[in-house]
Each structure stands twice: as C-alpha cells, then as structure tokens.
Amino acid sequence: MADAKTILQKYVSDMLSLESHIAQAIGKQVKENQNDTMINGKFTAFTKVTETHVAALRDRLDGLGGAANAPVKEGVAAVLGVAAGLIDKLRSEEISKDLRDDYTALNLSLVSYQMLHVTATALGDQQTADLAARNLKDNAEFVMEIQKIIPDVVVRELKQNHELTLQENAAQKTNEVVAAIWK
Predict the structure, then answer these.
(1) How far is residue 108 CA from its own chain's centroid?
(2) pLDDT digits (tens, 9 = 90+) for 70-119
(3) By the 8 A CB rule, do 53 and 135 touch?
(4) Which of 124, 88, 10, 149 is nearest to 157 (CA)?
(5) What is residue 93's DSSP assignment?
(6) Which of 10, 23, 72, 136 could form a disulfide with 113 if both were Cys (CB 3.0 to 4.6 A apart)?
(7) CB 42 within 8 Å of CB 117
C-alpha cells in the first residue's frame, strides 16, 4: 500500500505532465496566430499562467520528494494521447478547432485539479490543496473565456472561409443558450 506522500507525488506528477502539455499546445497556438490580435492576446496571457502552473507544480513535486520525470498513470497518459492533437499537429485549420481542443484539455485539468485538491485535503496537505485550488481557478477562468469567445470565432471563420449568408446575432444567440443552460 502506498503512503500519503507517494499518493500525492503521483497526483502532482500527473498534473505537472498535463499542465506541461497544455502549456506547450497553447504556446504553439500563440506562434500560429500571431496576426490574430483577439486570440493571440488571450493565448499569450494564458501561456504565462500555464508556465507559472508548471513551475509551481514542479516546485511542489520537489517539496514532496518526487521526481518531475515520474511516470504518468496510464489513464492520464491515454487521455493526454488524445489531447496530443493540441501539440503534435501544427494546423492550418480554424482557430475554433484549437479552442475546442484547449477546452477539452482544460476541462480534463479541472477535474484533475479537483481530484488533487480533495486528495491533498483528505491527506492533510494544505499546501498542495491550495496550489490545486489556485490552478483550478485559473484554468476555469480560461475555460469560461473560451466558452464566451468560441461562437464569435466560429462566425468569423464562416465569414472568412465560405460564401454563405449567415444569420445575424448567431454568436449572441448561442451565448444566450449556453448561459441559460449553466444557470
């Protein structure tokens, strides 16, 4: 049976791996979308946030006596493999698909941070619980930002890439539907 320290090391190591993947993906998206001021500013700001998450997780893992190169659990590794589309492909596709992939990876991070928080709390490690809560909040804010902007991005891409007649206020209507669902 694993002791509390070993369990925390595994959870923190998993989060370090996941956040590192997210940071790499978003960093590449910043480079790909340098001419898109609306998207690039948000991605640049969040890249800095994810870099602070990676550094804080690395520090916490060191504080727990773990190694940053510790193996990632199979389940997390499998999901990261799916999310690897974020990293391994430099796309010429729409920004909306990058945002969709980010949203997916970030939601994985949200539930993972929730699990880290409850584990750390249950095991009496307030420092790790506080770190999980801070990072959870940051990632949740970016998820909400993506949720707000994706309808506008999709409409913009439809206008740029296709000669279609579009319904006015489609993005606004979608945002209203989503807001009503989450109330």
Answers:
(1) 7
(2) 455 554 555 555 555 544 454 445 889 999 999 999 999 999 999 999 99
(3) yes
(4) 149
(5) S
(6) 136
(7) no
Read off the tokens for 161.
Answer: 């890439």
- Answer yes or no: are the C-beta atoms of 95 and 39 closer than 8 Å: yes
Residue 123 has which token pair? 């095991």
Provide the pLDDT for residue 67: 78
pTM for the predicted model, two decimal places = 0.84
> How many Cβ atoms are within 10 Å of 26's Cβ, its own excluded?
25
Is the distance from CB of 29 to CB of 153 less than 8 angstroms?
A: no
Of the candidates 144, 136, 145, 146, the residue with the CA atom closest to the CA atom of residue 53? 136
12's tokens: 């923190």
Q: What is the mean pLDDT of each run of 10 residues along the chain (183 residues)?
A: 91 96 90 81 90 97 81 52 50 78 96 98 98 98 94 92 90 95 90
Cα–Cα distance for residue pair 121/68, rounded to 1 Å: 22
Compute CA 34 distance to the chain's CA centroid, rounded to the nearest angstrom: 20
Distance CA 140, CA 113 (A): 10
Helix H segments across 33-125? 37-63, 74-83, 85-88, 95-122
Query: How far apart, in whole angstroms, are the C-alpha atoms of residue 137 and residue 149?
Result: 19
